[in-house]
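Table S2 (text version). Query chain:
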Amino acid sequence: MTDTTTIATPSIGLTLRSLLRADATVIARSRQTLILNLAVPILILVITDRAAARPGGNALGGQASGVMIALALAYGLLSSSLLGYSITVARDREAGVFQRLRVTPTPTWAIMLSRLLVQFAAAIVTSIIVIVVGGIMHHVSYGAGSYVLIFLVALYGAAMFLGIGQAIVGLIRSTTAVNAVGRVLYIVLLLLGILGISGALGDTFTNVSKWTPVGALITLFAAVQNTGAWSSDDTWSTVAIGAYLVVFSVIGIRWFQWESN
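Corresponding structure-token output:
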């Protein structure tokens, strides 16, 4: 007798929920994620708060408290993408995690969507904590509308930085190289942002740095914290972030390899 028993394929909803649960568990148990997502932005808040409290001193060259909080938000999102997401994806690829998932009925888009959704959720949590802590430290309060705008910008910025992280892991197969490039790029963007908004290296450097991914996001964060002062620079910062998002995402998707060899 011929065995006609068939194995039912799990629904995409069940598959995606399982992936989300697994990815969320990994990120929640990761000490590195905790440090990158929370310790870095909170450290920036502490440093800027102490600098502003010094006699005759003012954090970041006299910039407003909103800019200091924007700086912390931007670097929390940057570190979680460049030093968290890209390295984790590279390690899983090298360990054969993606190869094993691809032989299951799980669509490839669901594998990456799960990781991205978990990263976006982490970005929201990070933003909430940074906004609350930053508001307390710098004596800033926000209305409900400002909170919504800040969260929307956080998602927008997270998408941009995840696009950059995806481009790095897409163009580079070696986990060691992804780690090295991510750290170098992080330091470069960190210095560009801090030195740019401080004005320490002159107006020309400041004007150039504000159109970098970090500079554009800081400008946009600062703008939504003060909705009554929207300018053309804020509009162009929104456009610049969108351009970075599209370009790096296309690169990361187009050249991404599921295997390390």
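Notes on Table S2: The chain is about 75% helix and 0% strand. The chain has one domain: 12-254.
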